[in-house]
Design brief:
With about 325 residues, the protein is α/β, with parallel strands linked by helices. The protein contains 12 helices and 9 strands. Helix 1 crosses helix 12 and helix 5 crosses helix 12.
């Protein structure tokens, strides 16, 4: 199939990314989803392209997903762990990245605890930069895979009512979802403890509602976020039990709403806190679809940013 070029040269975030670019990335993601359903899942689109995965934070889903996406496209992949690098000996990020780039890498996928790290990286290297999560800023490929999963379920994004429930203040997933969903024409409401809702959030075009049952009654789908204690320390919520009672998605809570609500979760899940196991594993959840769509949409991002513009050949 023919696919239009996108205007991006890097993927730092979804803020400011055009509707047409997001649409193209999602459309191509569905093409690669079909590729992943074939007996032979590998295509030679990025043969000869070198990609390095720089992860300065722990990651399971995102790192494996990117590596699978790169290998499915036949790219050469190098994985970098900060704990086993010269950073542990005092080397700075700038020197580490420049040394890696001197090895002729075409693209860098980076996760880093500092907001803005991916943008800073793009100023250090002459290579495609893909943000795999920078602190509490953005996680653009997660936003894309969430939108892809929503579109797969409903056939559209425009006009849908999407709730984002949980720790909004510390969530890069929340921001990327907000930017992307707003651009694609969805209505977004955020819900969580008042001290975990940023004071500026309504300026981004969302509604704030502290009543999770009201949000569930309103929403077509909800994206459930975990409490990120590693970013905020202890004491941010009075107790796990209180949080679960006020904001957790339980079977009993969902049963009070006489409607089907599609449930997403970016992972990792704190079962029994923000979501119960019976809900996460139930028919309304599309969490495993998100995982598969994550590989497909990351294949789409790599494909578009690394110069394959004109024709996707069946392979």
């Amino acid at each position: 199939m023919r696919t239009p070029a996108i205007s991006l040269t890097n993927l730092i975030g979804l803020e400011g990314v055009s509707r047409s670019d997001i649409q193209t990335l999602l459309d191509t993601g569905f093409y690669f989803r079909d590729v992943l359903d074939r007996p032979i899942k590998k295509v030679p689109i990025l043969t000869g392209i070198n990609v390095v995965n720089l992860f300065f934070e722990s990651s399971t889903r995102t790192r494996i997903s990117f590596e699978l996406a790169e290998k499915r496209l036949s790219a050469e992949v190098v994985n970098f762990s900060a704990a086993a690098s010269s950073l542990s000996k005092g080397e700075g990020l700038k020197d580490t990245v420049r040394n890696i780039h001197a090895m002729k890498m075409d693209a860098v996928v980076m996760r880093h605890p500092a907001p803005g790290a991916a943008l800073q990286l793009s100023r250090f290297v002459d290579a495609v930069v893909i943000n795999a999560g920078d602190g509490t800023h953005e996680h653009p490929t997660q936003g894309l895979l969430d939108m892809m999963s929503i579109r797969e379920k409903f056939g559209r994004i425009k006009g849908l009512k999407i709730g984002i429930i949980g720790d909004i203040a510390h969530s890069r997933v929340a921001l990327s979802n907000i930017f992307g969903l707003n651009t694609m024409g969805a209505e977004v409401t955020v819900c969580g403890p008042g001290h975990l809702i940023p004071p500026f959030i309504e300026e981004l075009g969302v509604t704030v509602n502290g009543d999770v049952d009201a949000v569930l009654e309103w929403a077509d789908a909800v994206n459930v976020l975990r409490i990120q204690r590693e970013r905020m320390g202890v004491g941010i919520i009075p107790s796990v039990r209180e949080y679960r009672n006020r904001f957790g998605l339980t079977v009993e809570r969902l049963a009070r709403h006489k409607k089907e609500i599609v449930i997403l979760h970016p992972g990792p899940m704190n079962r029994g806190v923000e979501i119960d196991s019976d809900v996460a594993d139930g028919d309304q959840a599309i969490i495993l679809d998100q995982v598969l769509n994550g590989v497909a949409v990351r294949m789409s991002v790599l494909f578009h940013l690394l110069g394959a513009r004109e024709l996707l050949e069946e392979a």
